[in-house]
Write a structure and sequence with these properties.
With 139 residues, the protein is mainly alpha-helical. The chain is built from seven helices and two strands; from the N terminus they run αααβαβααα. The N and C termini lie far apart (55 Å).
Length: 139
């Protein structure tokens, strides 16, 4: 099972933040997944192996559709290095790429920053249902 650990590319200051750990959460998570943990991990690893053959199809979709895209990536990720983020820009030249001071578990290390990026991105790229309703009434 992949877990944050020293040397995973995370800034040293974030390796142990007691305030980020909910009391009792580790035991309940371990209990909830203990019976199937190995099976789940093996399923995930197997599933990932089915992705690469689909890459050309996804890349074609990106090139043809140019969906608004936000990419957040841990610049110190040792599993998916930062060099793996930039190829997306070939097919999505207008994508926003943010390389964060984080490792593989970027959301744990930079959750507030990523949350802010997501909210900002959505504000700029998604038409709210309220705006659509107001526009419909105005017409």
């Amino acid at each position: 099972m992949l877990r944050p650990r020293a040397g995973d590319g995370r800034p040293q200051a974030t390796l142990a933040i007691p305030s980020a750990i909910r009391p009792g959460s580790l035991g309940s998570e371990r209990t909830a997944f203990s019976s199937r943990r190995k099976e789940i991990q093996l399923d995930l690893f197997y599933s990932y192996g089915t992705n690469p053959p689909l890459y050309p199809e996804w890349q074609e979709y990106f090139r043809n559709s140019q969906p608004p895209t936000l990419i957040t990536w841990g610049k110190n990720d040792y599993i998916f290095p930062a060099e793996g983020a930039t190829p997306y820009l070939r097919d999505l030249p207008n994508a926003e790429l943010h390389l964060l001071d984080a490792g593989h578990f970027a959301l744990e290390d930079q959750g507030a920053a990523i949350g802010g990026l997501i909210l900002d991105f959505l504000d700029r790229n998604v038409v709210s249902t309220t705006a659509v309703a107001v526009g419909a009434v105005a017409e």
